[in-house]
Specification:
mainly alpha; 6 helices; 0% strand; elongated
Amino acid sequence: MTDQARQDAPGGESGPATDPMPPVPPERTDRPDGTNPPGQFGASGKSGQSGQRPTPGGADPAGRWALALGSAALLLMIVFPPAAPLPAAAALVVGVRARRRARRAARTAGRGTLAGVIMGSVGLAISIPLATTQIMLWSELNRYLDCRETANTITDEQGCRDTFLREVENKFNLRQGSLERYDIPM
């Protein structure tokens, strides 16, 4: 073995390999305001600007809230459309705020944040027209449902449908019979 190879090999001529630079102890990073840069903890136990320790895995719970609110909006859109815009708007606001907070802290947004924003947006885009239509046609829909409950034959049900369509045409000043050509499932 050459002298150069001996010096380059672990342990070299002087024995076991040692690191010429000992590890540097982490320095205190507490700022005067009692916080640390995002993701670092100091003696105060505060992290970043929020002053709260992140949840396990570093995920922000706001992302999960956005996802839950978006899911609730989509479910309510099917069950009771007039109530769906509230959780949809909340999912959109919570999700956007969580993404902004993550961007400011230079970290990735928590799981579900983007999905919550998307579901909140879709929920708002679909539920607002649905809710508006249902609110505007509340009395006509109630009369139609009452008529359907008392209908004994298919002809009676068809009469209920025709009456409902006539009432909707009158309410929106549509031409008589304009909704007849559409096969509206009822």
